[in-house]
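Dear Dr. K.,

Following up on our conversation at the group meeting, I've run the structure prediction for Aldehyde dehydrogenase (NAD+) from Afipia massiliensis. I'm pasting the input sequence below exactly as I used it, so you can double-check it against your construct before we proceed with anything downstream. Let me know if the numbering doesn't match what you have in your notebook.
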Amino acid sequence: MSKTHRNLIDGEWVDGESAPNVNPSDLNDIVGDYARATKADTEAAIAAAKAAFPKWSRSGLLQRHSILRKASDEILARKDELGRLLSREEGKTLVEGIGEAARAAQVFDFFAGEALRLAGEILPSVRPGVSVEVTREAVGVVGMITPWNFPLAIPSWKIAPALCHGNTVVFKPADLVPGSAWALVDILRRAGLPNGVLNLVMGRGSIVGQTILDSPNVDAITFTGSTGTGRRVAEASVANMRKFQLEMGGKNPLVVLDDADLGVAVESAVNGAFFSTGQRCTASSRLVVTEGIHDRFVSAVTERLKNLVVDDALRDGTHIGPVVDENQLAQDQKYISIGRDEGATLAFGGERLNRQTPGFYLQPALFVDASNDMRISREEIFGPVASVIRVKDYDEALSVANDTPFGLSAGICTTSLKHATHFKRNSEAGMVMVNLPTAGVDFHVPFGGRKGSSCGSREQGKYAAEFYTTVKTAYTG
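The predicted structure tokens came back this morning:
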């Protein structure tokens, strides 16, 4: 029997009902048993965070810096171990898992520095003899609800700025990936966080997440996940008059123009659409391709897909790991059927695969003859499924790219400075890539989208302060 990894509430590891964490690459492999918090546990975590807030929000900058820096150092030193744990429970390849662990370390390192750069303004008043101070203060208790697809990076880029700016945290990770969350919280606890500043409540969204949403003692909620759940977070937050930040879905376009470098376009498309098993909100699931390069592009992408290895995430040489679980696999397969029924042509893949170990393996699926009004072009699939939409020219490509209820990321492959410049200015997305995959962003710059993809201030970098602080204006006569 493996030990149960318990929830952390007010600095104590708390026992409770547990559930196995299953490896999607090998369903016979149990990563570990992880506790599931009850409503009472979650309420206790919120109370602990509320009690810890006054002292932590007034803690010294060097204390915060030291804790965040210690966490960064340990994550980086253990990146291979943490990356393996991540890949084992989520299914992304080991290379991707280790890379994500390293990124988590970079995030904590950045905000360790930010803790020493906290600043305000002193301004003259319009009234002689009066001065004005503009400062930022912590918001309070922050509830965090994070997704399963980036189980180290996304919690890190929420927790690090929250702690940097003096907030206390109630952290609910996705039920599918408790292992990475537990390891991260354990590192921060041992780095010296006072009791109650960071509380971990693993478990079901219907219990833990709902308790966080319902609590009047949660001052802000940051959420990354589905659009439907995001709306519920917004509704509950408005009812409680609290701050909220939502990062939700995407249906990201990658435009490929006739003058594009074919090799660059193919690598951008395959990486953006299919790596990490397509389970990224920034994945380029719509490939918008002009007529002159369309056939060559489709042929080259198909050949590239034929050479990709779909297998156990931990196995050397694997390019694409399994889908995260049975429900996500069923959703992917449902949309592949929908695409066929809508009249798109499945040019490659889409079959469930058998490997040496039992897992949720799916061959990457590439549709052609798709139109932008098909469900496979409108709705987020969140799997290794992409559609090629043929267009006449740049103007039509831009129109199709922007014709979506989402607006997270968009890309263009072109050697034309004119078109690249125009696309950056006119794309209705929060992030724009030129001759790069739509997925893949730096840790020190803002992350977020427009329309149905995001709501609230941006995440990451110095822009994170907009969410994790509130502005105070003080006058002295």
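Two things stood out to me. The first strand starts at residue 4 and ends at 5. The radius of gyration is 23 Å.

Best regards,
J.T.
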